[in-house]
Amino acid sequence: DQQVKQNSPSLSVQEGRISILNCDYTNSMFDYFLWYKKYPAEGPTFLISISSIKDKNEDGRFTVFLNKSAKHLSLHIVPSQPGDSAVYFCAARLLYNFNKFYFGSGTKLNVKP
Amino acid sequence: GAVVSQHPSRVICKSGTSVKIECRSLDFQATTMFWYRQFPKKSLMLMATSNEGSKATYEQGVEKDKFLINHASLTLSTLTVTSAHPEDSSFYICSASAQGTEYGYTFGSGTRLTVV
Question: Which of A56, A86, A87, B64 is 20 to 30 A from A10 in CA distance terms?
């Protein structure tokens, strides 16, 4: 039972445009959400996070939006750069088990020059 | 920042042999480390939680006798794939949590295991 879902396995955007990666979750007890970026044959690296008490968090070109009522979060990258091409995982943490994270299946982003 | 080192990055072994993968927290102490497995085009699947000085906690469906985890110190956890079979071929990733960080936890660079 996948509690965190990324329904788009891949996304292709032009350099300079906005990339929007989406993530849906089912468990209302998730209190913390993160986005990780992963290159082939490497471990994921942390990108940006958001607490469930917020609806937006911004860090440079990256912004994460959280819609709790819809159980949906999204990552916006603007402007997109070719170096952003990677697989992006969203992850969620349970309120009562902060050590355990649930990951989505990832979205492969390709930013075309 | 917190750094997790994982070794080896790539290993090929014969069926029936055992393989050990090491995960080290380089600049922080990690009482808890985590082992993940990634199948092709699939999400990261948590296999087990490794606790320093005690037995690991395995997720449902993960064979603890096949995937032996040892967390003997605050900076080292090992995963041993015993009697490896081709279906054990996968990408294994460890991670550890640095106290007080808001970044979730830090991942190692992963180990690509191929069983032939």
Answer: A56
Tens digits of residue pLDDT in B47-56: 998 888 888 9
Residues of B in contact with A101 (CB under 8 A): 46, 104-105
Whether B114 has its CB under 8 Å from any CB of chain A: the answer is: no
Distance, in Å, from the CA atom of B46 to the CA atom of A2, rounded to the nearest integer, reads 12
> Are the beta carbons of B93 and A43 separated by less than 8 Å?
yes
Please list, in sequence order, all residues whose beta carbon lies within 8 angstroms of the beta carbon of residue B60, skipping any fewer than 6 positions away.
none
Minimum-distance CB partner of A41 among B94, B107, B112? B112
Selection from B55, B3, B10 nearest residue B26 by Cα: B3
How far, in Å, CA of A48 to CA of A34, rounded?
Answer: 6
Residue of A nearest to B104 (CA): A34
Handedness of CA A85, B92, B7, A101 (dihedral sign): positive
Quick: pLDDT tens for A42-52.
888 889 999 99
Tokens (6 digits) for A20? 């929007």
